Amino acid sequence: MTTTSAPPSSPPQRRDSTPKAKGRLGDRLFAGASTGSGILILLVLAGVAVFLISKSLPALTADTADLPNEEGLASYIWPLIFGTLLAALIALVVATPLGVGIALYITHYAPRRLAALMGYVMDLLAAIPSVVYGFWGIATLAPALVPFYGWLERNLGFIPLFAGPASVTGRTMLTVGLVLAVMILPIISAISREVFSQAPALHREAALALGATRWEMIKMAVLPYGKSGIIGGAMLGLGRALGETLAVAIVLSASGVVTFNLISSTNPSTIAANIALQFPESSGLNVNVLIASGLALFVITLAVNMLARWVVNRRADFSGAN
């Protein structure tokens, strides 16, 4: 007697009662608002670029004799670009190690209550207006640095950076760089702190379980994970330093030259500070020249932010589980 087995029945298809996401009104509204916001940002950026280019054309095509320095537009803007980059570089060199060190202390060394207090204080520094930093720099920091500048001239004067003569007022490029370093310190510290706190706990615990000290654990597990965050935060801080206006205009004693001497009274100005100081009294072609210098600052800042985005995207696929 033979028996036949019934063919296996296919599992019943479960009907999904949830409507498709693309059909929901809320999702469509959110997608449209997000897309519109992105397009609006691009339009605003394009509008700023078009404005700067159109207003800079008279200066770009003007005769050399009609320009403020009578030597050409490039010779007028170049010292300003040099001063802008020099001040921002000083700020970056000073603020980046401090910001990373503060972030590491808050996330891995400080007690919980002290870490919360320090994080609040660091975030509060970002809310202080730049004019307050400028007044602090000219009234407190600059006079306090005068003896130090004299010591640098006497002992390190053979280095072009400290050749002197030392300024008797302290209103130097190095003072401006230190003020800018304090201003961008909260940006670098906040971003680094967030990145370090998200380091994979599995990696940190594995390093400690293998006998690593706390610093060895940070060096092997935390810093490699947060490298892109540190670079991105530093680039964002650099962008802030490049565009700072009031603090630089208040502190710096500018003379429009190109020099690497950081402690003398002869200092290059920055683009933003020069525009703020010269624009109220300018008219005609001089206004176009200032807008042309603003176009140069726009290009530099845009390049810095694009570089930061490229660095972050290079490690966007990094995962703590890899």
Annotation keywords:
MetI-like fold, about 70% helix, 11 helices, about 0% strand, MetI-like, mainly alpha, globular, about 325 residues, cell membrane
Give your account of this protein's structure.
It contains 11 helices and no strands. The chain has a single domain (62-314), classed as MetI-like fold (Orthogonal Bundle). It is globular, with a radius of gyration of 27 Å. By secondary structure, the protein is mainly α. The model has no long low-confidence stretch (mean pLDDT 82). Helix 1 (25-61) crosses helix 11, helix 5 (173-197) runs antiparallel to helix 8 and helix 10 (271-278) packs antiparallel against helix 11 (285-314). 35% of the residues are buried. It has helices spanning 25-61, 73-108, 112-125, 130-156, 173-197, 201-209, 214-225, 227-243, 246-251, 271-278, 285-314.
Proportion of β residues? under 5%
Give the rounded overall mean pLDDT.
82
Helix share bin: 55-70%
CATH architecture: Orthogonal Bundle
CATH class designation: Mainly Alpha
Major sheet details: none
- According to CATH, the homologous superfamily is MetI-like
Radius of gyration, in Å, reads 27 Å
- Which class of secondary structure composition applies to the elements? mainly alpha
Distance between the termini: 60 Å
Ordered list of secondary-structure elements with their pairings:
Layout (H helix, E strand, L loop, with lengths): L24 H37 L11 H36 L3 H14 L4 H27 L16 H25 L3 H9 L4 H12 L1 H17 L2 H6 L19 H8 L6 H30 L8
